[in-house]
Structure formats: structure tokens, C-alpha cells
Amino acid sequence: MSGKILVLGATGNVGRPLVGALLSRGERVKAASRSGAVVAGAEGAVFDFEDPSTFDAAFSGVDRAFVLAPTGSLAITERLLPVIAAAAARKMKVVFMSVLGADADDAIPYRQVELALEPSGTPYVILRPNWFADNFHTFWKAGLAHGQIALPAGTGKTSFIDARDIAESAVAALTTDRFDGRAFNLTGPQALDYGEAAAILSAVTGKPIAYAAVDDDTFVGILTRAGVPEAYARFLASIFHPVREGWTAALAADVEALTGHAPRTLKTYAQDHAAELK
Ligand SMILES: NC(=O)c1ccc[n+]([C@@H]2O[C@H](COP(=O)([O-])OP(=O)(O)OC[C@H]3O[C@@H](n4cnc5c(N)ncnc54)[C@H](OP(=O)(O)O)[C@@H]3O)[C@@H](O)[C@H]2O)c1
Q: Which fold has domain 132-159+188-249+264-278?
């Protein structure tokens, strides 16, 4: 593996720490985004899922790629299958960030991407992260500002994962062939319900933060009033079903298997992001 590593979504939650971690290991990195911005000092590459004419230049000189679907799109297979095909045609190794539970049903779009990658003949690793801890300072930040996180999560528990642990897992997957041909479930070290998570955020930030369990329609109303398109708000509501069922409470040892260290706790996440959570 002597070529460059292409990181899609390089300006995002996982991509940015991934670029930094790869550079610090001496890897040559192309940081891909629509703008082609330089990220953490890495060469920028213009890449747009909507414009396949950007693929060739972005893939030039690359032998490994970190592939994800950008947040906010429901067109998962439409966006990712052409990228998987283009990478496989070049025999580029693909580390694909899927989602926890994708393997529950072959009809799930992320599973369809996995099913295209697995027999493609190119080396691959699939990473299936649980809900990100980082959502608290991104998606749910507006709620935190009002002292309340309102979600249709019931009392279901989630083993939230820190995006840095996903990035470090991806580093391991990209820089050795030891994990090739396998899928890994990436979770944090504790399963917490949103009330317990809110209490941790409250203790760390010193701000009162409550959790309100709401129904899907209330949640969709909150999001659409904040400008989220209704179809995407409904999609977000739908993915809280596995949370209410308790399926996101699973604890996996895969972060440690990949990185050699235990995943970060929600308290550590909150302490390290305290300024962004306030
Ligand atoms: N949040 C969670 O709890 C969670 C849990 C499990 C799995 N996931 C999965 O994680 C993925 C999101 O990862 P993330 O949070 O690291 O991403 P993110 O922070 O939302 O960043 C998205 C990245 O994609 C780029 N992008 C957006 N539109 C693009 C386009 N048309 N062409 C090329 N690049 C584009 C953005 O850069 P520019 O805008 O600069 O182009 C940005 O770098 C999703 O697939 C999601 O399903 C999330």
C-alpha cells in the first residue's frame, strides 16, 4: 500500500479527525469535499457524488479510500453504488462507513451498498457505527441551547460512539490488511438512555439539560420548524425505532480490536467538546 488515501467527507465529523490521524502516521492523504478545501494540511480534492466527472481526478494516485454517504441525503444507493463500482474497477481498497444494524435486512440501503462491495473483488472493510456522541453538539445543539433534548427515543439505551473512535478505527482498517473482508460494529463503552446522557452533559457543562421523550410527529414538527426538509425529518424519526426497541444498546468489542484501546465514554466526549455543547 504505497499510494495515497482518499478520504470522502473530509470536512465532516469523522473525515476531519481521520485526515489528521492519517497524516500524523505519515500517510499521504487526499481530503475530498465539494469545495476541495485543504483539511488539516492535507491536499484537497474536489469530489461531488452528484458529478461523476469529478471521480477520475479525485481517484488519481489513490490505492485506498474511506467512503461514506453525506448526512442529509436519502439517496444512499444512488450516491454510493457508482463510487463503489469506480473504486472496484481501479482495485482500490474501500473502507466503507455503513451504520449499525445495516445487516438486519438486505433491503436497507446501506446493506445494499455492503452487498455490492463484498463480492466486488476489491479489498474492503465495513465499519458500522452506532449513533454518534457528536450529534449532541451538531444535530441536537439547538435543543441543548434551550435546556432540553426532545427525541422519539423513549427510554431506549444507546452505546454512543465518539467520532474520534470511528476515525481511529478507520485508520486501522486503512493502514493494514489484517481486517480486510470483515465488518465491525463500532459502539461506545456504555449503553445510556437519553435521560442519562442529558445528565452527563448537564454535569459537564454546568447547564441544566433535560430529556423529553416525544412522539414522531412532535419530533418532525420541531425539525421542520428549524428548516429540516420533512422527508429527512421523517427518516430521522424512523431510525429512532431501533433505539426504542433497545437494539442500539449493544456493546461491541470491535473498536478495541481495531485500535487497541477502549472507546471513549460519553463523559470524555462531553469534557472534550464542552465549549461546543454550551
Ligand atoms: N450521526 C450519526 O449518529 C451516525 C450514526 C451512524 C452512521 N452515520 C453515518 O455517518 C455518515 C455521516 O458522517 P459524518 O457525520 O462524518 O458526515 P458529516 O459531518 O455530515 O459530513 C458530510 C461530509 O460529506 C461532504 N459532502 C456533502 N455533500 C457532498 C456531496 N454531494 N459530494 C461530496 N461530498 C459531500 C461534506 O463536505 P462538503 O459539504 O464540504 O462537500 C462533509 O465533508 C452518514 O452516512 C450517516 O448515515 C451517522
A: UDP-galactose 4-epimerase; domain 1 (3.90.25)
Domain ranges (residues) in the chain:
4-129, 132-159+188-249+264-278
- Look at the domain 4-129 and name its fold: Rossmann fold (3.40.50)
Q: Does ligand 1 come within 6 angstroms of the Cβ of 50?
A: yes
Q: Counting atoms of ligand 1 from 1, which one is nearest the CA of 15?
A: 16
3-state secondary structure of 120: coil
Of the pLDDT bands very low, low, confident and very high (cuts 50, 70, 90), residue 162 is very high
For a ligand 1 pocket test, name from 33, 95, 161 the mutation site with the most ligand atoms within 8 angstroms of its C-beta: 33
C-alpha 159/C-alpha 142 separation (Å) is: 22
Are 138 and 228 a contacting pair, CB within 8 Å?
A: no
pLDDT on residue 278: 87
List, for residues 199-235, the tens digit of each pLDDT value.
Answer: 999 999 999 999 999 999 999 999 999 999 999 999 9
